[in-house]
């Protein structure tokens, strides 16, 4: 069963627009961790943020912000005033603590963001 | 610089041949992972290792093999038994000291010709 759902396959915005990437997760664990990664065209996955299940405070880092809501099992990512350099594929991922797969991540299928000038 | 190094970046394989992808990390991380990425599929776990001389199968281990003889090294062999090996392969590592956040290498592209 899909544990992480990123319903938006592709998003295209014009530079300076705000954009929100959605992530919905599924888990029965009370302790878990949520992540966002960025994958630019070069291919490397860049870690953006890690959130544990006990911390529902929203996070802001420059133009990036994250909204974690346990009530809706969502961990959405917003880019404010988007820039061309934000163009990439963004992955949401879930780690259910130590499990049969160690601390490995369950990834969503990713959202491809294209920011045009 | 500290990080995860994968080599080669690009690799071409003839059908029926085994190939080995290298992954080295100097982060002193205990755990290492191999993921496979196909277009539109996200990342899927192949193998992982929590400590030296121990490793476990992930979701798609068939046709792959690994070894963990040293803490810093976790090579992946794509065997001829893997029917559809063309993909992007990502190596990663983590440690409890960093909250088990997984960090990735730059990846290796494997193409079967």
- Coarse structural class of chain B: mainly beta
| Mean pLDDT across every amino acid position of chain B | 92
- Overall pLDDT score of chain A: 91
Dominant shape of chain B: globular
Oligomer: heterodimer
- Give the number of DSSP strands of chain B: 11
The major pleated sheet of chain B works out as: 7 strands, mixed
Gyration radius of chain B (Cα, Å) is 13 Å
Q: What proportion of the residues of chain B is helical, as a percent range? A: under 10%
List SSEs of chain B in N-to-C order.
EEEEEEEEEEE
Ends apart, CA distance between termini of chain A: 39 Å
- The helix-and-strand class of chain A reads mainly beta
Q: Which residue ranges of chain A are poorly predicted, with pLDDT under 50 across at least 5 consecutive positions?
A: none
Number of separate helices of chain A: 0
Low-confidence region ranges of chain B: none
Instruction: Give the biggest sheet of chain A.
Output: 6 strands, mixed
- Beta content of chain B: over 45%
Please give the count of helices of chain B. 0
* Helical residues, percent of chain A: under 10%
Folded structure, characterized:
The complex is a heterodimer of chains A (117) and B (113). Chain A is built from no helices and twelve strands. Chain A is mostly beta strands. The radius of gyration of chain B is 13 Å and the shape is globular. With 113 residues, chain B is mainly β. The interface between A and B is medium-sized, with 24 and 27 residues.
């Amino acid at each position: 069963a899909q544990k992480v759902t990123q319903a938006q396959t592709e998003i295209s915005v014009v530079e300076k627009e705000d954009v929100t990437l959605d992530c919905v997760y599924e888990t029965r664990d009370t302790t878990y961790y949520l992540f966002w990664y960025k994958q630019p065209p070069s291919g490397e996955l860049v870690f953006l943020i890690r959130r544990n299940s006990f911390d529902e405070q929203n996070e802001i880092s420059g133009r990036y912000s994250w909204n974690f809501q346990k009530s809706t099992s969502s961990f959405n990512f917003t880019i404010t005033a988007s820039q061309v350099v934000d163009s990439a594929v963004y992955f949401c991922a879930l780690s259910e603590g130590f499990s049969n797969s160690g601390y490995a991540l369950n990834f969503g299928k990713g959202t491809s963001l294209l920011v045009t000038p | 610089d500290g990080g995860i190094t994968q080599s080669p970046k690009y690799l071409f394989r003839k059908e029926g041949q085994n190939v080995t992808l290298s992954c080295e990390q100097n982060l002193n991380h205990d755990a290492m992972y191999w993921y496979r990425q196909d277009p539109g599929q996200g990342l899927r776990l192949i193998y992982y290792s929590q400590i030296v001389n121990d490793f476990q199968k992930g979701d798609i281990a068939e046709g792959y093999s690994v070894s963990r003889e040293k803490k810093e090294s976790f090579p992946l062999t794509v065997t001829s038994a893997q029917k559809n090996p063309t993909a992007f392969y990502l190596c990663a590592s983590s440690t409890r000291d960093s909250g088990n956040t997984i960090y990735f290498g730059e990846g290796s592209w494997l193409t079967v010709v």
